[in-house]
Amino acid sequence: MDRMPEEDDVSPVSTAPVTPTPPPEFKMLPLFMDFEDFSICQPAPFSYDDKAMLELERCDYTQRITYHMARAGKTTRRVRVYADGIYDLFHQGHARQLMQAKNVFPNVYLIVGVCNDELTLRMKGRTVMNGFERYEGVRHCRYVDEIVPNAPWTLNEEFIEEHKIDFVAHDDIPYGAGGVNDIYAPLKAKGMFVATERTEGVSTSDIVARIVKDYDVYVRRNLARGYSAKELNVSFLSEKKFRLQNKMDELKTRGKRELTKVKVDIITKWEEKSREFIDAFLLLFGRERLNTFWNESKGRIIQALSPPGSPNGSVNGDDPDATDHLDSEDEYMELPPDYGSGSCGSLSRKLKRPDKVNASANLNYSEQPEHRDVVNELRSD
């Protein structure tokens, strides 16, 4: 027998509250980090980093390089090409501009200058990304060899000498600023300017315009992803409106998903049942079954049109000799003598016997001309 549990064997029930399990933590790179551990590939150094300073010291700037020498590849050192810009919301148009600058000559060391937030706000307007974010976006582009932060809006001789710049790369469209029609005009006159081309259909202004155009969509998306109304600078009523729209869209999506699932289930069940219906139909109305049904029906039709004979051998149940005596003396019967008086008394009045009339009318159905062809056709089948 099983031993009954004693009081000491019963473990006490814990009444302590259950501590919720914390969400798993994912390892993330710090915003500011040292890339020395990445030995295979690293972002471009800043102009004040040791790697960039060593490259600057190795450059013999006394050997001036002309455009024709650089194009022909007849240089004793790397050609230092400078490109500058804001590079807000770094996109493929920026990358293609830097790619062109990197490939303008056979052996290029590409230096990219990025203006800071204060100068950009004063000269062009507010940016979406801050200076640090724009620096990091550019220095992680594989065409870039060096980054110059806090770059000037216009280039002077002192800046060019400091960074030992041989050529400046920019698009050829005149860029005016500070009352000057084209800030790159002096460099063009010296033969130190190389032109790049813009990428059609893409710019930072276009990207900002898309966001402004679909403002409600992006606000709803970020609210759904956990951003607060304060972080998005949205009023209380607007937040409730956007959250209600998100909920309605969620219900619509769920309804469509369930409807699709129901449709699939119905179609699947119909396919299964249709196979059963087809099998049952073929079993009942297949070729062999139809032939049997036709033969049985044909026999019944022939039997209906040609009734079977009577036991005495007649064709339709009548006496075969009855038709032979229709014209005999039994066809007429004499009236009683009392019918003989009167004006017709001398005549012996005879009436046709009813049973003989029926016998004469009861001809074989199959002997009638209008049905003989139908019977013969059915028998031939």
UniProtKB/TrEMBL annotation:
Its EC number is 2.7.7.15. Pathway: Lipid metabolism; Phospholipid metabolism; phosphatidylcholine biosynthesis; phosphatidylcholine from phosphocholine: step 1/2. GO terms for molecular function: choline-phosphate cytidylyltransferase activity; phosphatidylcholine binding. Keywords: Lipid biosynthesis, Lipid metabolism, Nucleotidyltransferase, Phospholipid biosynthesis, Phospholipid metabolism, Transferase. The keyword Endoplasmic reticulum does not apply. Residues 368-381 have a biased composition (Basic and acidic residues). Residues 1-10 have a biased composition (Acidic residues). The keyword rRNA-binding does not apply. Residues 1-22, 306-381 are annotated as: Disordered. Residues 82-210 form the Cytidyltransferase-like domain. PANTHER family: CHOLINE-PHOSPHATE CYTIDYLYLTRANSFERASE, CYTIDYLYLTRANSFERASE. Belongs to the cytidylyltransferase family. This is choline-phosphate cytidylyltransferase. It comes from Drosophila mauritiana. The gene is LOC117139463.
